[in-house]
Amino acid sequence: MSIHTPILHNLQKHITLTKAEEDHFISILTYKEIPKKTTLLAEGQACNQLSYVHSGALRSYCLDESGKESTIMFAMADWWLTDMYCFLNEKPSMTFIETLEDSVVFSISKLHFDQLFHTISGFERFFRILMQNAYTREQLRTIENLTLKAEERYYRFLNKYPQMAGKLTQKQIASYLGITPEFLSNIRKKQLGKQ
Amino acid sequence: MSIHTPILHNLQKHITLTKAEEDHFISILTYKEIPKKTTLLAEGQACNQLSYVHSGALRSYCLDESGKESTIMFAMADWWLTDMYCFLNEKPSMTFIETLEDSVVFSISKLHFDQLFHTISGFERFFRILMQNAYTREQLRTIENLTLKAEERYYRFLNKYPQMAGKLTQKQIASYLGITPEFLSNIRKKQLGKQ
DNA sequence: CTTTAGGCTTAAAGTAGTTTAAGTTATTGT
DNA sequence: ACAATAACTTAAACTACTTTAAGCCTAAAG
């Protein structure tokens, strides 16, 4: 059971690798230990890393003109994270990525990423499935945002990501749901009364 | 310039096909002429078709318990459309798809779709890129829904999809933006005053 | 050609969510 | 151990958006 077992296992969810492919894949990974509350990507920076979360938890968010934060997504162990649009199109990042707790990630540079489609025969398939899942998940989020009230969205969030709830502040959860922290506090008070 | 030129051209945006691959691809397409305001997929039905829009315009939407419509997406010439989650996972459809005007589409069955990954060497890449674009577009929509007011979302919609604006009713546009038709009418009146 | 249903508008009243501001409780850095 | 900063709460005033209901206009169906 090496340090690379989980990330290899993640690939093996969707594709089979030869021993040579495994070795090559491991050779391009950059191991990073990142303390809690560290920003590893900031708006405007080159977004040339795709990261696999080995342990810990991270969050990506953007800021509007007025300085208001919106949490785009979070990632815990066994998830992948980057500013996907900017990574794929080699644009300066439009988002921030920060650790929520001490984390270990394996990063792949855009250069190596592009090569993986040639060096690992199943990688195209692997990444296609990753993108399929990300797309359908994001579409569900859109629909829930359009059709549900904040209270219902909050309970679905708690239900879908119970582990994340403890790692995020209320302000961060509110910014994922698209409401103010004050209103989330309101929703929670209401629920306490019911119990 | 055959009827298949546009759909082949669409594949060739991202991959190169041999003549044999082109012929095979064309052989699995189902040509469909569909009159205006026809429902070609309804909630609960098997969603086993992925459709390329040759001409015309379509819309996908879902209904909540109370009967309220939400427009998930629309598609015009040269776009692809299905209930992606249900198509990929072979679940009964959660959405409706209807034509907004007389349309011609080429459909691919899930069975043929699965085979394409083996019969066309670049298809995995093609579909990966399709999913990448769909994902990053959807993520942008989420952020705009969370951060912008309805008025701003409406003007960005008009700006991004000027051709669609004329094909959708105000009710449908409102349901894409996540507001009531009455409030959209309000926004439009306000703008008329400014001009 | 006429009826009817749907699409669009208007306006008044209601509600979900925001803003501001103040106070309380944790965390963090020195 | 202390001060400073951020997290969470509360409440009152405000605004964005919804609901309801009525009226008008256009297009499709008989």
TrEMBL record, chains A, B:
InterPro entries: cNMP-bd_dom (IPR000595), cNMP-bd_dom_sf (IPR018490), RmlC-like_jellyroll (IPR014710)
Name the UniProt record assigns to this protein: Cyclic nucleotide-binding protein
Superkingdom of the organism of origin: Bacteria
Domain Cyclic nucleotide-binding: 32-118
Entry-linked CDD domains: CAP_ED
